[in-house]
Amino acid sequence: MAGKGWQDLKQQVEGTAQEAVTATGAAAQQVVDQAAEAGQKAMDQVAKATQETADKTASQASEAFSGFGKKMGLLK
């Protein structure tokens, strides 16, 4: 009878250990997912800032060329 008690205890401990491993794995996956999401947001912000800078630079160049063309009488 004592053998059955030990067997039950062993199964209970193994079940608890497996639950702990599963919970730890889920927590680790959540951390990885959050880090990936943060990295994606950072990349999105860099891309947006780069596009805005390119747009601003193109606009300034266009305005400068237009001003130059007007001075030279090429544009009205």
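Second entry:
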Amino acid sequence: MDFQQLADVAEKWCSNTPFELIATEDTERRMDFYADPGVSFYVLCPDNGCGDNFHVWSESEDCLPFLQLAQDYISSCGKKTLHEVLEKVFKSFRPLLGLPDADDDAFEEYSADVEEEEPEADHPQMGVSQQ
């Protein structure tokens, strides 16, 4: 995929997240992202001909530790798409962005538990007499 196509993918991804694509550098194949409050990172995109993976990094000391999850994901087996990498970065940064952890499986389990507990027909409603 050429770099402009990757930049288009990144722009589309940004439209669904708090991040903005603030800079692209075609010769380095680098994209810089930023979100308030001061969360920043960049992605280096592999060349088409290379077997390299994407690379994510942050020049912010506060952000860097949160990228470990995304870096581990990228270095695991298999080719990754830019969208998959960006999604993993977003998940990694959720605590810094003040968003709840979006572990999909845990959320679904929690939602299912809540839905099961809601109907409480066994308990009398307040103010309704039992005759």
